[in-house]
Amino acid sequence: MSQASIIDIRNRTSQALKRDTVTQEQTARAPHKIPKETERQSGQDDGKTSVGTQPAWHTEALPFAHPSEKEFTRILDFYGVQWVYEPRAFPLQWEGERVTEMFTPDFYLPDLDMYVELTTLKQSLVTEKNRKLRRLRELYPDTNIKLLYRRDYHRLLAKYGYGPLAQAEVRGIERVLFSPQQIQKRVSELGKQISKDYTDRQPILVGVLRGMLCFMADLIREISLPISIDLMSISHYTGGSRPGVRITKDLDTDIAGADVILIEDVVDTGMTLNYLLNYLSSKNPATLTVCTLLDKKIRRLIDVSIVYIGFEIPDEFVVGYGLDYMEKYRNLPFIGVLRPKENE
Asked: Which of 203, 226, 224, 206 is nearest to 216 (CA)?
């Protein structure tokens, strides 16, 4: 096809897409239209809203053309990947001004700016879809579209940091609470805020081992100030007449007169944090503030001041991104909710 022909077709495509009316043949091929106020931005399953979304349509209520499409949405929902079902139709062939062939991808993934078409192993279907995709890419070269077999689902998601191929273990995870992208965005915001608040100062970041390792490692790279770091470790004991907290590794740095930021993974009752703040205050820092990745405020027993909070979470057992259950799940790139039976 000549360059002039392609330009002419693109011009007609632009004109066709601007018109509100369609022929009967177009209507037959047009995708199911979702009202804007309920447009599906991310899946929802069994009444549970996916991360970062508001209640919209249930996955079961959508008119999926094939079971594989429903399966794909469940995978996307689990990892908190936003999706729109049959988002638009692309004109591919014309007779004069009349569109004679269109192609409607199965999904659009806004976070990845990608259209996805699912396919089976039936060769005749694969051949026909490949023909249409070649035509679509010729007419719409800026459109990012992928043809996926079932075996490719997880490979695609792993490329973007999602799915079971992107981490060592997901068994036992009920759902993803915060995706890698959400975590990195929030950590970046915290780093920028700390950099602003501590202008012309050199804070010492004190991490409490071990759940904060991923958080602290990412956070310090988002702080545009000269900083120092130190680590301490504690243990909870139940022996003797009363339970308590014991320092098993103390600071190596003298923090007297310094600006100290205590880095925590999760704050819930506030009892351990209160102990740590009293202990560090006894070393006479100039200032002492708290930065936590997660705040489980609903469980608070002692009122403690937290200046920097990544996310407020419900009263559920969470793992991943440094957080563990019996030393498992620390290396997950997301933060997920552990199934109740797993932490009993």
From this structure: 206
Q: Which two tokens stand for residue 344?
A: 């009993």
In total, how many domains does the chain have? 2
The three-class DSSP label of residue 83 is: coil
CA distance 202 to 225: 7
| Together in a domain, 301 and 210 | yes
Residues 10-20 have pLDDT tens digits of 555 444 444 43
150, 275 contact by CB (below 8 A): no
Q: Return d(Cα 72, Cα 93) in angstroms, integer.
A: 29
Question: Residues 8, 149: one domain?
Answer: yes
Condensed to tens digits (0 to 9), the pLDDT of residues 236-256 reads 765 555 557 889 999 999 999
Q: Which of 45, 268, 303, 324 is catalytic?
A: 268
Is 171 part of a structural domain of the chain?
no
Residue showing tokens 């001041």: 305
Give the CATH number for residue 319: 3.40.50.2020
**Domain span at 10:** 3-165
For residues 3 and 139, what is the distance between their CA atoms, to the nearest angstrom? Answer: 11
Please say which residue of 139, 165, 191 terminates a domain: 165
The answer to whether residues 194 and 286 belong to one domain is: yes
For residue 44, tell me if it sits in a domain: yes
Q: Which two tokens stand for residue 3?
A: 């360059």
Q: Are residues 155 and 199 in the same domain?
A: no
Q: Write out the E strands in the chain.
A: 44-45, 48-49, 84-85, 90-95, 98-103, 107-109, 114-118, 145-148, 173-178, 204-208, 228-237, 244-249, 259-267, 287-295, 308-312, 318-319, 335-338
Q: Give the pLDDT mean for 263-292.
A: 95
Contact 33, 49 (CB under 8 A): no
User: In terms of Cα–Cα distance, which of 97, 108, 95 is closest to 22?
Assistant: 97
Looking at residue 28, its pLDDT comes to 31
Q: What is the distance between the alpha carbons of residues 73 and 87, in angstroms, rounded to a whole number?
A: 14
**C-alpha distance across the termini of the chain, in Å:** 65
Q: Under a CB-based contact definition with an 8 Å cutoff, are residues 166 and 191 in contact?
A: no
Whether 198 and 328 share a structural domain: yes
**In the annotation, is 268 catalytic?**
yes
